[in-house]
Each structure stands twice: as C-alpha cells, then as structure tokens.
Design brief:
Shape: rod-shaped
Oligomer: single chain
Largest sheet: 2 strands, antiparallel
Radius of gyration: 44 Å
Order of helices and strands: HHHHHEEHH
Helix content: over 70%
Strand order of the largest sheet: 1-2
Number of helices: 7
Low-confidence stretches: 1-28
C-alpha cells in the first residue's frame, strides 16, 4: 500500500501530548494581563471623570441654590418692608379717625409674620448651604449671612410689639398733638431691643441686592469650570483609549502574523518551518506548541519516508 505524502494533522496532534513545552507563567507580563490593565486604566479614567463631574455638579448646584436663596430672601425682605409701610399708613389713618378696618391691620400683621417665618427658613437653608461650601472649599462664611440671621431674630419681637400697640391704637381726640403720638408709633415700628430695625432691614436688602450678581457670577464660573473639566477629561480618556488600542493592536498583530505564516507554511508542506519566539506571553506558548506539532509532523514524514524506502 502506498503511504500518503503528508501525515494527517489529526494524528499528529494526538501524538504530541507527552511533548508539550512549558513556559514559566511569571517570567513576563502576559498579554491578557496587559489587556486587563488597559481596561482597568480606562475604567479608572471613566471613574475619575465621573467623580469630577459629580463634584463639579454639586459645586455648581450649591452656587445655583445660593443664587435662588438670595433672590428669595430679597423678595421676602421687600415684601416685609412693603407690608410694614402699608401698616404704618393704616396707623396714620387710624389716628386721624378714618375708620380703618381692623381686618386690614390683622391681614398686614399676618403677612409680616408669614414673611418673617419664610425668612427664617430661607436663612437656615442659606446658612447650612454656606457651611457646606465653606467646609468644601475652605472659604469663610460671608458676614451678611450672620447679619441676616440677627435681623430675623429681631423681627418676631418687633411684630409682637407692633401688634400690641396697634390693637390699643385709638383715633386722636380733638386738640391732641399728632407729632408726639406718631413719633411714639415710629419707635414701636422701627425699634427692637434697642436697635434700629429699619436700618437693619434696609441694610439687609442692600446686601442681598449686592449678593445676587456675585452668586450668579459664581454659578457661571462653576459651570464654565465644569464644562472645561468634562471636556478635558473626555479628551484624556479618548486619547488613552486610542493609545491603548494601538498598543494592544500592535502587540496582538505581530504574534498573530507569525502564527498565520506558520500555518501557511505547514499547509504548503514546509514542515521544517518554525515560528520565532520572543514575545514571552500566551502567544509564545501557542508558538511552542505549534513548533512541537510541526516537529512531530516532520518526524512522522521522515519515518514514513524511511518505511517507504525499506519497502
């Protein structure tokens, strides 16, 4: 029977079990470890980017809340000042026996009380917000925050004193001096614990008007910084991904080309072809197995040739 020219690849693969080469797994950095490190670097960059975005968005949100709080506090201060002015007009008309309605007085007092409570809530939120900003960025709490808290503490006492005085307010009798009574009423309206409440409220209104553009500017700066950080980190992540992809592609392409060249040579019958080693990774192990298989095939061919010559 005439032997075949090239032994079967299936037969040869079954014969190399005892000749498998071994390579020390810790002699080098394996390709799969490089791949894992590349993915780890990309995940770390994405996490850093997410962290910066989270931190920047919180920072911008704090400044945006501060801007809204400054606007709301200014609105409540103006509403409180307007209610007090209308109540002052009511008191003057009551003194002049204009038959003013007590319901108007009570309604204005209730509106002042509601404005005061709203101010206290806004001040607590503003103080808590600035506490977080100061702790995070190492900046002092603006003095107008504490000044506003001091104003709101005086408002309740002032409203209670105004209510008590206006309940007892009666029209002036004929011949009574209006100036002295009006001066006494103004003292009730404008004084609380010996302090000029009108000056404090006007000062708070002026400070809030000055705070609003500063808060808006801080919000815009935070948005610009967040935008720049996001773009910069996205560009860095993209550059790292491109570099890692090129590196891994180069590390993958060369051993694959050597393996493909070896299989083509083996298919063409060049059983003496051996794949060059040197990558010292998983591809080297595959190349060593391939070379062992080629050697086994070459030995079988030589044995077959010798057998043919003997026949």
């Amino acid at each position: 029977m005439k032997p075949t020219a090239t032994p079967s690849l299936f037969i040869c693969c079954s014969c190399i079990g005892s000749h498998q080469p071994r390579i020390a797994p810790l002699k080098c950095l394996m390709f799969r470890l490089r791949l894992s490190l590349a993915f780890a670097v990309l995940v770390a960059l994405v996490c850093v980017q997410a962290g910066f975005v989270y931190w920047g968005s919180n920072r911008v949100n704090d400044y945006a809340q501060h801007s809204r709080l400054a606007s709301d506090i200014l609105s409540e201060l103006l509403e409180l000042s307007a209610s007090k002015q209308r109540l002052r007009v009511w008191a003057s008309q009551q003194l002049m026996n204009a038959n003013e309605s007590p319901e108007v007085r009570d309604n204005l007092l209730a509106r002042m009380q509601a404005s005061t409570e709203t101010l206290r809530q806004l001040e607590r939120r503003d103080l808590s917000l600035w506490g977080g900003i100061a702790a995070r960025e190492g900046v002092p709490i603006p003095p107008e925050v504490d000044q506003l808290v001091a104003v709101s503490d005086l408002l309740n006492d002032n409203i209670a004193a105004v209510r008590a005085r206006l309940v007892k307010l009666a029209p002036l009798e004929r011949g009574a001096e209006f100036a002295s009574v009006w001066q006494e009423l103004n003292e009730v309206f404008d004084k609380a614990r010996g302090r000029d409440l009108r000056e404090l409220i006007n000062g708070a209104i002026e400070r809030q008007r000055n705070v609003m553009p500063v808060a808006r500017a801080a919000t815009e700066r935070g948005l610009d910084q967040l935008r720049q950080q996001t773009i910069g980190l996205a560009a860095l992540t993209l550059a790292a991904a491109v570099v890692l992809a090129l590196y891994l592609n180069r590390r993958l392409q060369r051993p694959l080309d050597r393996l493909l060249e070896g299989t083509q040579a083996l298919r063409a019958g060049a059983l003496d072809h051996r794949i060059a080693l040197g990558s010292r990774d998983e591809f080297d192990r595959v190349a060593e197995h391939f070379n062992a298989m080629a050697a086994e095939l070459q030995r079988h061919r030589l044995d077959a040739d010798a057998a043919r010559r003997r026949l």
